[in-house]
Design a protein that fits this description.
mainly alpha, 7 helices, 83% helix
Length: 183
């Protein structure tokens, strides 16, 4: 009976220690966001920034509450999500297509990689003025910028993945009658 009680006490202690560890981890995880919020309060109230540059957290919360109350926050959020979705879809389709071509064919890789590498070196923010000049200020430049941001990681991953396919596996595929170019 005493062994059972000591086992039960040990299990209770372990559970308590696990709970304390999880609470500690949660509090530690809140440390950085809390510090950022405190810094935001401080910088918005001490005159370092004007209210138009860095509005106080209370004003941001009031504006969010107002937009939720009017029902316009969800409308704006859905438009932004639509932009992101469309831009990612375009960038991913182009990235998969060109990445597949480059990863599967050395000749196409030699043709496209210098140009794609040069375009990749252009910072995303450098595209903004060009896109505004070329496309105006409506949806097109926003979607295009998102597509550019999505294109390069997808392209790089697909091209590198296909280029790294084991040549023995390609030979096995050809032995089974599969056709395609991975030269």
């Amino acid at each position: 009976m005493t062994e059972f009680k000591s086992d039960q006490q040990a299990t209770s202690k372990q559970r308590l220690l696990k709970r304390l560890a999880s609470v500690r981890a949660a509090l530690l995880g809140l440390l950085l966001p809390g510090g950022v919020l405190a810094l935001w309060f401080y910088l918005s109230s001490n005159g370092s920034f004007s209210a138009t540059q860095l509005p106080p957290p209370g004003e941001v919360l009031a504006a969010a509450t107002s937009l939720i109350g009017k029902g316009t926050l969800w409308e704006h959020l859905l438009i932004s999500l639509q932009r992101v979705g469309l831009g990612f879809l375009i960038g991913a389709i182009l990235g998969i297509t060109l990445g597949s071509l480059v990863g599967l064919n050395k000749w196409i890789a030699q043709l496209l990689m210098p140009t794609i590498g040069a375009l990749r070196a252009i910072p995303s923010l450098a595209w903004v003025p060009l896109l505004l000049i070329w496309m105006g200020i409506y949806e097109e430049p926003k979607v295009t910028l998102i597509a550019i941001g999505a294109f390069f990681p997808v392209f790089t991953t697909v091209a590198a993945g296909l280029a790294a396919v084991d040549r023995n596996l390609i030979e096995v595929g050809r032995a089974y009658g599969l056709k395609g170019s991975l030269s």
